[in-house]
Amino acid sequence: MQLSEILKMALGSLGVNKLRSMLTMLGITIGVFSVIGVMTAVTALRSSIETGLSFLGSNMFQFAKFPVNSGGGPEGGRRRYELRRDVTIEQAMRYQRLMEGVADVICLKTFNQGGAQAVYNGRKTTPNLTFGGSNEHFLTANQYAIATGRNFTPGDIELARPLVLIGQDLVTKLFPAENPLGKQIKVKDRTYTVIGTFEPKGQSFGGSGDSIAIVPITRYLGDFGSERVSVNIATQAPSQVLYNETMDKGVTAMRIVRGLKPEQDNDFEVYSNDSLIAIFARVADMIAAGSFVISGIALLAAGVGIMNIMLVSVTERTKEIGIRKSIGARKKNILWQFLIESVAISLAGGVAGILLGVLGGNGLAMALNASFVFPWDWAAIGLIVCSGIGVGFGFYPAWKAASLDPIEALRFE
Q: Taking 80 as the threshold, does the pLDDT of residue 199 lie above it?
């Protein structure tokens, strides 16, 4: 028999019992969907990680009271960081002085943790505005740019002037038909004059980079107090070559302003874009490992289901097998036919799982403003695994069918 004839007969046999074939495919589909969906989402998020997690500028590192992921650990771990001393504005300014000649860009910043709302002439923004204080280096350290107006000057920071830079969401909602420059807005019952607007930043991981208002850090602390407020310090190395040297000097300066003795551990965190990416990678790996376990169990159950259905099919078609053998079909022809049926069921389920996984994973990724991707490598791995399941769990039923005695098979009722 030609391979094409065997293939046609195998697919025809599956078409006779469509519902049973589809239900058998479902287990494979679920298993493949779970891992492809997760890996698609992770791949899509990783493809936009530079814009999503790299909120620090080029060659930047940052000192802070809390680590990036302190909120995700056990309560005891979070409490340990809360007991640390705040990084005060006086310490931050002393750090600036110690780093003169080492780094030109040192951004001091602190943000309101509860969200804020901006008001102008009866118009209001949503109450989840990102509001905080910083200095003239905020743009460089956080990858913003001025669209209209001007940036803060050192004099604005030194004199604590009531000025504000606003994002495009505030421009749209508060000034739909007028120029915002020179206008006075209220944020948390304090009045500030708009001196500049940021260029559009866009969405990132479900949040808007355009819903932001920044005032001079000295003004912010003067208006709202410095008690229980910790200042973050972002420092830009002059070049990638000097990055490690600059960070070492920065850590030394930070230990000096914190009054730490040589034997004492750092009571502050230091992180960079690389550390943020590493944190995301660890979380992604944990999610992927969980999806592999779930999909492995589902695929194992689906493989057992395929074997069961194929054994039932061998029993139902015993007489058919006997007739085919009696008119010249060889053992390998029968073996190939049943193997092809098993692999076809497995591959069809795998293809359905891949398509659903890609759609589901990209749906989640796009909700977080990541770009659409198709994980060709994982799709290929999925098809190979499905083929292996089809062969592995379908071989015994196929061998059993091929080994039937034609005389006994013809007598079967």
A: yes
User: What pLDDT, on a 0 to 100 scale, did the predictor assign at position 70?
Assistant: 53
Q: What tokens were used for 291? A: 């999806």
Give the strand pairing for 184-187 and 190-198: antiparallel
**pLDDT more than 70, % of the chain:** 84
Spatial CA neighbour of 108 closest among 59, 70, 162, 157: 157
> What stretches of 139-244 adopt beta strand conformation (E)?
146-149, 163-166, 184-187, 190-198, 203-204, 207-208, 212-216, 232-236
Strand partners, 330: none
Instruction: Say if strands 269-272 and 123-124 run parallel, antiparallel, or are unpaired.
Output: unpaired
Task: Tell me the HSE value of 100 on the side-chain side, using a 13 A CA sphere.
Answer: 5
For residue 166, the surrounding DSSP H or E stretch is strand 163-166
How many Cβ atoms from other residues are within 10 Å of residue 333's Cβ?
Answer: 18
The CA-to-CA distance between both ends of the chain, in Å, stands at 27
pLDDT at 2 over 60: no
Q: What is the pLDDT of residues 211-264, one digit of tens each?
A: 999 999 999 999 999 888 899 999 988 888 888 899 999 999 999 999 999 889
Whole-number mean pLDDT of the chain?
82
Whole-angstrom distance, CA of residue 105 vs CA of residue 408 = 88
Helix axes 331-367, 3-16, angle to 10 degrees: 60
Please tell me the total number of residues recorded for the chain in this structure: 413
d(CA 387, CA 316): 24
Q: Is 96 helix (H, G, I), strand (E, B) or coil?
A: helix
The tokens describing 74, both together, are 């056990």
Phi, psi of 88 (to 5 degrees): -80, 165
User: What is the radius of gyration, based on Cα positions, of the chain?
Assistant: 32
**Cα separations (Å) of 16 from 53, 151, 398?**
53, 73, 18
pLDDT at 366 over 80: no
